[in-house]
Amino acid sequence: MLDTNKILQLIGVQGYKLRANEHPEQLENTKGDWSELESEVKHCTKCSLHKSRTQTVFGCGNKDSDWLFIGEAPGKDEDLQGEPFVGRAGRLLNEIIFSIGLNREDIYIANILKCRPPNNRDPSSKEIHLCSSYLEQQIRMVSPKIIIAVGRIAAQNLLGSDLTMGKLRGTVHSYGSENIPLVVLYHPAYLLRSPSQKYKVWSDLQLARTVME
Ligand code: URA
Q1: Chain-centre distance of CA 26, in angstroms?
Q2: Most buried one in 28, 89, 101, 195, CB count within 10 A?
Q3: Ligand 1 centre and the CA of 84: distance in Å?
């Protein structure tokens, strides 16, 4: 098959050369990156969590979204269904997303860890370290305009901070060398236990919306 530059040459268009990211072959590779990464995660045995998982939980949603939500790790329901935030906390997260005029399909959702820690214990720093390249690649490929860190584990690890949630929420941080704005939300599982804190999430969402406007 002729490549696009050859076709341009044949029909007499001169002095025009496609940039690397305009090549259809390159675009296919971009898509390929996702399936390659997903397959790599699916077969990952870097840490011992692979022994107890039912399946990996890669991430889901709109890969071109401006909004990237990042949680902690799959729980029981996520481990069974292979999708992030599908349990009780996930249903509350859906309402949170809906309250800013978005649906799950409009955003991309991923976790710090791709496998469930047994009994939903906190992820260890070794597990987080071994899993981190997968999330870094997802962030790079989604290239969001804002990151929403859902819960303490996500917030502390994305920001390289050990500050409490009380100190991390309520301000706009920036992530990585690209300085992607990052806003921290209380985890919906915490809100289920402490519904009186929901108003803080509402206020943090307004902050995120302001960033996007
Ligand atoms: N909690 C998380 O942080 N992520 C999930 O996917 C589910 C529950």
Answers
A1: 23
A2: 89
A3: 6
| Alpha carbon distance 146, 163 (integer Å) | 21
C-beta of residue 192 within 8 angstroms of C-beta of residue 88? yes
Q: Report DSSP letters for 124-189, one per residue.
A: PHHHHHHHHHHHHHHHHHH--SEEEEESHHHHHHHHT----HHHHTTS-EEETTTTEEEEEE--HH
CATH-assigned architecture of domain 30-212? 3-Layer(aba) Sandwich (3.40)
Closest CA to 54 of 78, 79, 30: 79
**pLDDT bracket for residue 12 (50, 70, 90):** very low
**Which one of 104, 111, 153 would you pick to mutate in the ligand 1 pocket, going by the greatest count of ligand atoms within 8 A of its CB?**
111
Spacing, Cα 171 to ligand 1 middle (Å): 23
Which atom of ligand 1 is the closest one to the Cα of 77? 7
Instruction: Determine if ligand 1 sits within 6 Å of the CB of residue 75.
Output: yes
Tell me, using a 6 A CB cutoff, whether residue 74 lines ligand 1: yes
Check pocket membership of 78 for ligand 1, CB cut-off 6 A: yes
pLDDT in tens, 170-179: 999 999 999 9
Residue position matching structure tokens 């070794």: 126
The answer to whether residue 18 scores a pLDDT higher than 90 is no
pTM of the model: 0.86
